[in-house]
């Protein structure tokens, strides 16, 4: 199950099947999507999303008991993959910043999950990897497309070919994790980062996220044009004027909801 809660302006999605290493089922994707619906609705007051997990491990991928029921049933598997892809796209394309906090095992589908997040905090006991090849499987939730974009094609293929696990420090060096922190400090570090984001201008955060995602697929000239258009739209709103006034008055800005 996915616990959907609020901590001030931070919306929290917590994977909550620690006894099953937070393995994901159809219902978990539906619950994540419902949580994003709640956080993204106008007037919600949520300015950042924290994706975390209870227990010793973040996520080891899909629930094998459920996966076995779809072996040989291509229509059922296709429906499940469409649901998983749609939910992960919601994370990647959310207008809100999405921050992941991961500990222990971050494997297969768990790795694919964090690839859809904007900023990743990794505890020093975290281990990242993809083991699909060991079971004759192909990554099903986007790793073949997102992982090369993050770590480069050679490192991505090495992880998928070998099935090996890398530690948090290596993940940070590769750009797979943004921060590697002591396990005891993981929750506070990720929550504090989200709380800082909650003080920022929501339209500015949304624009930066969209533009950075677009940069992966657009030619430079097209991307720069989109950036200019975003700047013009942003300056028509109230936040830039408030930001400049706050700077001049040497106070913290008070951005609109």
Q: Quick gist of this model?
A:
About 50% of the residues lie in helices and about 15% in strands. It is of the alpha/beta class and about 260 residues long. The chain folds into 2 domains: about 1-195, 2-enoyl-CoA Hydratase, Chain A, domain 1; about 200-250.
What would you note in describing this structure?
The structure is a single chain. The strands form two sheets. A six-stranded mixed sheet has the order 1-2-3-4-6-9, sandwiched between helices. The protein has helices spanning 26-40, 64-68, 74-93, 109-114, 143-151, 153-162, 168-174, 186-197, 202-215, 220-235, 239-249; strands spanning 2-7, 10-15, 48-53, 98-102, 105-107, 119-123, 127-129, 165-167, 179-181. It starts with a strand and ends in an 8-residue tail after the last helix. Helix content is 49%, strand content 16%. The model has no long low-confidence stretch (mean pLDDT 94). It folds into two domains: 2-197, Alpha-Beta Complex (2-enoyl-CoA Hydratase, Chain A, domain 1), CATH 3.90.226.10; 202-249. Strand 2, helix 1 (26-40) and strand 3 form a beta-alpha-beta unit. The chain is built from eleven helices and nine strands. With 257 residues, it is of the alpha/beta class. This is Enoyl-CoA hydratase/isomerase family protein. It comes from Amycolatopsis silviterrae.
């Amino acid at each position: 199950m996915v616990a959907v809660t609020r901590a001030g302006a931070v919306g929290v999605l917590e994977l909550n099947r620690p006894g099953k290493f937070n393995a994901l089922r159809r219902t978990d994707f539906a619950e994540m999507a419902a949580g994003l619906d709640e956080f993204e609705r106008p007037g919600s007051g949520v300015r950042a999303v924290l994706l975390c997990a209870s227990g010793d491990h973040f996520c080891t991928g899909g629930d094998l008991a459920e996966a076995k029921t779809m072996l040989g049933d291509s229509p059922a598997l296709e429906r499940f993959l469409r649901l998983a892809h749609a939910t992960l796209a919601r994370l990647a394309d959310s207008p809100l910043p999405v921050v992941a906090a991961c500990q222990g095992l971050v494997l297969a589908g768990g790795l694919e999950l964090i690839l859809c997040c904007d900023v990743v905090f990794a505890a020093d006991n975290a281990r990242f990897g993809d083991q699909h090849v060991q079971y004759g499987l192909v990554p099903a939730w986007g790793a073949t497309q997102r992982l090369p974009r993050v770590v480069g094609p050679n490192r991505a293929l090495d992880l998928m070919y070998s099935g090996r696990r890398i530690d948090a420090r290596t993940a940070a060096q590769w750009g797979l994790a943004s921060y590697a922190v002591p396990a005891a400090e993981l929750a506070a570090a990720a929550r504090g980062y989200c709380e800082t984001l909650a003080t920022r201008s929501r339209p500015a955060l949304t624009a930066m996220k969209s533009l950075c995602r677009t940069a992966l697929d657009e030619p430079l000239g097209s991307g720069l044009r989109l950036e200019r258009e975003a700047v013009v739209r942003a300056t028509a709103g109230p936040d830039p004027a408030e930001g400049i006034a706050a700077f001049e008055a040497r106070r913290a800005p008070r951005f609109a909801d």
